Every structure is written in structure tokens, then in C-alpha cells.
């Protein structure tokens, strides 16, 4: 059982996120990022700009349908476009979302009738709908964009999976927008599928992802909205009032969007993982050093939290962080930190080959000394996909008896348990700053020193 | 010392040890627990290797230490400490092989005063 399974590990591809062009989807939950159409628009690549034009054309076609009296068809198309489960982006914990309702769709389409600019010219950035309709948020914008460019995403996914040698299956992909016929249809395509639901999966280039779209309601409300005009002193300023005001004052939105276009250089994609800065790494380590051992005043929780924040940054990009406090299926045992083993380092490859570690578990113990039960506990975890390699993160080196116990585990079961102490973490932070070495070298050192003691 | 070449080799390692020591000391003062990168470590190991050859069994500072293991990631301060020991021993070797004559210090070759000038022993009369 892999903790928090990712699409790549499941398909036996062990490349870290850092080296891949697409965002690696999780199999059981969504990635908390969204496709920002503004990033596609901003891209210097003509191909990307072309895709943005196609998305806009498909969206503005809804306006054409409305003008031509095919209101119901427009409503149906917008509802179909409002959810794209295949890409797995958003906040859902289940990879399954809901479409918008008819009322919401009608609200959006009414913009083509109520605002003269959209009636005549259509949208330049369809994200603007967030500024007029309640219930339309970043997730909808992202899903609409994905659905209107699904045909591209199918090709992209097929290409990436072919390069990586990921198995694909021919199946039906629903709601693919046909730009010639200007309607949604189901198409047959060869794509990777979700192992449980057997539904097709689509990959998205990570360069298009942001936590919040560049054009968003909060930024408008904070920096551009004439709040005094909308609600007079003492009056309540709620979102609906603002949205209604916007419909009647399109000029404001126009200037807001133009300003956003002017400041396009500040619009960058959000990385899927950001290393903490060196100064905060040092601060975190200073906090760790000051903590007493044991559980007094929540020292153990603070220790786990600090190490949990520090290690993923220190070990990036070799080890992708999977989960903190991962529970087993029965919820009884908890592994403190789990990393995906991307095998892009000789040492990590060796760990996979010798110990079968598809994921690596780190057990954090804020204790004066590791005792027998701690070793036994970590030993119990070391099975299946977690492999036979585990790491203790603790305050002091193992005492002779416990060290002997870990050596016996290697002798009897070929399991390796290595230890990183405060001193090692300190040195990891040191090299994280000086860049003379990679902090993973310290983990390797602990392993080498451990193996030297083994018979 | 038996030959002039031995003197040259000794002077070369003394120079290398001093240079390496002063470089790494600067790093060690800034961050003692930081580590050397593999390039620097390789160079230090080369210096230690030739020092071991020159110093021989008698003057080698530690019986069980030849050079640093790449995997053990020695810190800056570890390296300075070891280099200092080698420098001391190299100096002891030199001091044992110089003699004062005609108002200057000269190397001894085969127990006789050579023509090669040297400095005074760092600790006169230590032996």
C-alpha cells in the first residue's frame, strides 16, 4: 500500500515532480492548484496563445448561442463545461466534483445580454465572470478552461505517457469540445486510466497552474473596488452588492482587467512545492535545538512540526514529500513523514533495489533516548511498499543496546534503520545554506556509517 | 634525509599543507560544521596522500588515518584539525633534518650539511 498514491509511482515511473512538465496527479484526491487561463494567455509560446484563443472562442460561442436564441443549448454547454474530473485539480478530497446548477449557468449567460461590451465583443478573459456571478470561483474557471481545451489535454497526456512508457487504454472521454461543430461530444482516445474507477486521467502542464487566478474577486475587491460607493457608511457591504454594482459599471471591470494585463510580468505560475528560505530553515533548527525532550508543553508536537517543515525542503528535489502523520488503513499506526522515492540519486536507487522502498518513512521521536519499543515500532512499519529502510529523526545518537538491536535487524531481516540526530540536522541546514553539499549526503553518511557496523 | 629530491618533496608538501590549512581555516571560522564539497575534499586527500608518502611511518601523525572518506563528509573543522597535525609533523621532520652552519640553517643529507638553506627549526632544541 502506497501512502497518498500518485499517478507516476503507481505506474512505476520514479521521476520527481521537479523534473516533470506536468503536475503529478494524486489518485485519491485533487491537487490544490488551478489552471489559470491568464497564464495561458501570457505564455510567450504561440501554441499556448492559440489554446487561449480556442478557449475564448468556445466561451464566446455561448454568447452567440444566446444571441441566436439557443439559450437552452448555451445553458447545457456551460453546465457541461463546469466540471472536469479527469484533471483532478481543486480542493476536492475525492477527485469528484459537482457541476453548476441551471440558475448559476443562466446568471453567467445573462452577461452576454446585460453588458453591452460582452454583447458586442465577447470576453477577452473569461475569468471576468467571477466578478459578476456569485458561486463562480477559481475552480469553475479552471474547469471551464480545461473542458474547452480537453482535446489538447488528451494529446498532451498521450504524448507524456508515451514518453514515460505509462500504460494507456482506449476508452471514451466525455464532454470534449469540438471546435468545428461548436458542441460537446464524447470521443474515443487512448489514455491512462484511474486504477480503481477506470476513468480516464488527463495531465496538465504545471506552467499553467496557480493557487488563485490572476484575475480574481479578492484582488478586485481589495485593490480596485470602490467600496465607499457601493455601500455607504454604516451600510453592509456584501459580495452580492459588489457583483450587482459591477454589472452596472462595466468600466470599472474594464480598467481592472487592463491593469492586470499591464502588470502581467508579476503573474507567475505557483510551484507545486516551494523550499523554505534559508533563514527560516536556520530559524526552524534553532527552535528545534531549544525544545526540551519529552512531551512537556507540547514539545513533541512542536518538534514534529518543525522537522516536518524542515525536511521536505532539505531533501528537495531528490525526495518528494508525500504526507505527514500518515495513518495506516486501520488508523492505528501513524508514520510521521513519508517521502516518495524518486530514485534519481544513486543512493535512492540503491535503497529501492536493496530494500524495496517505493516510499521512505521517517519516524520523528522527541525523546532523550530511543528505546527498544521505538525500534520495534519502526521495524513494524518497514514492510510492503515502505520497504525495509527507515529513518529515526531524534535528538541524540542511539545508545549501544538500541544500536545493537538495529544491527541485529539488518543481520536477521536485512532491514536498515538509520538515525539522524540534532547534530545531523544542524549540518544539513548548514549545507543547505552553504550549498557545498546536498543535505541528502548527510542521510547517506548515516547509512554508510550504519552499514559499516553491520557484520 | 637521503637525497635532494626528498628535500624538494618535503618542501612541496609543507607548502601544500600550509596553503590548504589557511584556506580551510577561513571556512572553518565562518562555519565550523559546514562541509567541504567533493572537489575540495579530493584535493585535500591528494595532499594528505603525498604527505603520508613523504612523512613515512615515523612522522605520520596517526597510524589508522590515511585520508578522509568521501562518505563520511568531514566538516571544515575536522579537516583543519587533521591538516594542523600533518603540518606539525612535517615541521618536526624538517626540524630534525636541519643544522646550523656558517651562521645559517641547512638541510642535512646523509648526515652531512648540504648546500640547501632552510629556516630555523620552529622549536629549537626540542630534540
Secondary-structure blueprint:
The complex is a heterodimer of chains A (455) and B (127).
Chain A: H1 7-10, E1 34-35, H2 37-42, H3 46-67, H4 71-81, H5 102-109, H6 111-114, H7 116-121, H8 138-148, H9 150-164, E2 169-178, E3 183-191, E4 209-210, H10 217-223, H11 227-230, H12 239-248, H13 250-262, H14 278-290, H15 299-315, E5 319-327, E6 334-341, H16 346-355, E7 359-365, H17 372-381, E8 389-394, H18 400-413, E9 416-420, H19 422-434, H20 440-453
Parallel strand pairs in A: 7-8, 8-9
Antiparallel strand pairs in A: 1-4, 2-3, 5-6, 6-7
Helix pairs in contact in A: 3-4, 4-5, 14-15, 14-19, 19-20
Chain B: H1 4-30, H2 38-59, H3 76-96, E1 98-101, E2 104-109, E3 112-118
Antiparallel strand pairs in B: 1-2, 2-3
Description:
By secondary structure, chain A is an alpha/beta fold. Chain A has 20 helices and 9 strands. Chain A has a 5-stranded mixed sheet with strand order 5-6-7-8-9, with helices on both faces. In chain A, helix 17 (372-381) links the parallel strand 7 and strand 8. Chain A is elongated, with a radius of gyration of 26 Å. Chain B is of the alpha+beta class. Chain B is 55% helix and 13% strand. Chain B contains 3 helices and 3 strands. Chain B has a 3-stranded antiparallel sheet. In chain B, helix 1 crosses helix 2 (38-59), helix 1 (4-30) runs antiparallel to helix 3 (76-96) and helix 2 (38-59) packs parallel to helix 3 (76-96). The longest helix of chain B is centred in the first third of the chain and has 27 residues, at 4-30. In chain B, 27% of the residues are buried. The mean pLDDT of chain B is 90.
Amino acid at each position: 500500500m502506497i501512502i497518498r498514491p500518485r499517478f507516476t509511482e503507481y505506474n512505476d515511473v520514479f521521476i520527481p515532480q521537479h523534473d516533470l512538465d506536468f503536475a503529478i496527479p494524486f489518485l485519491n484526491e485533487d491537487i490544490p492548484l488551478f489552471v489559470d487561463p491568464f497564464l495561458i494567455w501570457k505564455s510567450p509560446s504561440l501554441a499556448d496563445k492559440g489554446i487561449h484563443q480556442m478557449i475564448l472562442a468556445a466561451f464566446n460561442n455561448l454568447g452567440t448561442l444566446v444571441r441566436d436564441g439557443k439559450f437552452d443549448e448555451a445553458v447545457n454547454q456551460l453546465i457541461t463545461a463546469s466540471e472536469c474530473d479527469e484533471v483532478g485539480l481543486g480542493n476536492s478530497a475525492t477527485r469528484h466534483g459537482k457541476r453548476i446548477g441551471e440558475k448559476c449557468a443562466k446568471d453567467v449567460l445573462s452577461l452576454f445580454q446585460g453588458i453591452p461590451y460582452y454583447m458586442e465583443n465577447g470576453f477577452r478573459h473569461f475569468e471576468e465572470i467571477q466578478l459578476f456571478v456569485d458561486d463562480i470561483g477559481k475552480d469553475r474557471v479552471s474547469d471551464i478552461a480545461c473542458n474547452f481545451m480537453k482535446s489538447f489535454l488528451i494529446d498532451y497526456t498521450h504524448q507524456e505517457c508515451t514518453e514515460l512508457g505509462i500504460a494507456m487504454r482506449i476508452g471514451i472521454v466525455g464532454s470534449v469540445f469540438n471546435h468545428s461543430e461548436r458542441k460537446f461530444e464524447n470521443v474515443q482516445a487512448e489514455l491512462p486510466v484511474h486504477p480503481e474507477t477506470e476513468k480516464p486521467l488527463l495531465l496538465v502542464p504545471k506552467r499553467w497552474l496557480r493557487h488563485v487566478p490572476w484575475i480574481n474577486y479578492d484582488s478586485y475587491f481589495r485593490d480596485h473596488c470602490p467600496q465607499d460607493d457601493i455601500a455607504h457608511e454604516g451600510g453592509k457591504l456584501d459580495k452580492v452588492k459588489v457583483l450587482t454594482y459591477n454589472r452596472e459599471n462595466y468600466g470599472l471591470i474594464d480598467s481592472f482587467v487592463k491593469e492586470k494585463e499591464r502588470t502581467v510580468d508579476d503573474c507567475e505560475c505557483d510551484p507545486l512545492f516551494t523550499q523554505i528560505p534559508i533563514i527560516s530553515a536556520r530559524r526552524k533548527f534553532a527552535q528545534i535545538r531549544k525544545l526540551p525532550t519529552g512531551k512537556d508543553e507540547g514539545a513533541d508536537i512542536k518538534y514534529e512540526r518543525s522537522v516536518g517543515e524542515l525536511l521536505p525542503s532539505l531533501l528537495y528535489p531528490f525526495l518528494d514529500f508525500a504526507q505527514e502523520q500518515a495513518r495506516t488503513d486501520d488508523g492505528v499506526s501513524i508514520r510521521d513523514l513519508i517521502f516518495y522515492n524518486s530514485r534519481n540519486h544513486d543512493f535512492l536507487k540503491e535503497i529501492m533495489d536493496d530494500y524495496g522502498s517505493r516510499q521512505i518513512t521517517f519516524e520523528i521521536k522527541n525523546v532523550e533516548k530511543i528505546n527498544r519499543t521505538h525500534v520495534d515500532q519502526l521495524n513494524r512499519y518497514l514492510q510492503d511498499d515502505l520497504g525495509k529502510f527507515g529513518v529515526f529523526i531524534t535528538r541524540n545518537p542511539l545508545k549501544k543496546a538500541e544500536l545493537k538491536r538495529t544491527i541485529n535487524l539488518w543481520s536477521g531481516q536485512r532491514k536498515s534503520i538509520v538515525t539522524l540526530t540534532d547534530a545531523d540536522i544542524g549540518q544539513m541546514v548548514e549545507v543547505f545554506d552553504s550549498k557545498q553539499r546536498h543535505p541528502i549526503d548527510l542521510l547517506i553518511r548515516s547509512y554508510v556509517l550504519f552499514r559499516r557496523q553491520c557484520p | 634525509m637521503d637525497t635532494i629530491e626528498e628535500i624538494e618533496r618535503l618542501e612541496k608538501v609543507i607548502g601544500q599543507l600550509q596553503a590548504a590549512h589557511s584556506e580551510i581555516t577561513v571556512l572553518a571560522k565562518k562555519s565550523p560544521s559546514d562541509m567541504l564539497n567533493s572537489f575540495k575534499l579530493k584535493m585535500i586527500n591528494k595532499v594528505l596522500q603525498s604527505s603520508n608518502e613523504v612523512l613515512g611511518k615515523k612522522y605520520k601523525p596517526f597510524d589508522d588515518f590515511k585520508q578522509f572518506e568521501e562518505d563520511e563528509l568531514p566538516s571544515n573543522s575536522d579537516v583543519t584539525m587533521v591538516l594542523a597535525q600533518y603540518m606539525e609533523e612535517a615541521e618536526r621532520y624538517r626540524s630534525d633534518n636541519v643544522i646550523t652552519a656558517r651562521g645559517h640553517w641547512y638541510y642535512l643529507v646523509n648526515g652531512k650539511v648540504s648546500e640547501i638553506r632552510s629556516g630555523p627549526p620552529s622549536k629549537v632544541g626540542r630534540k
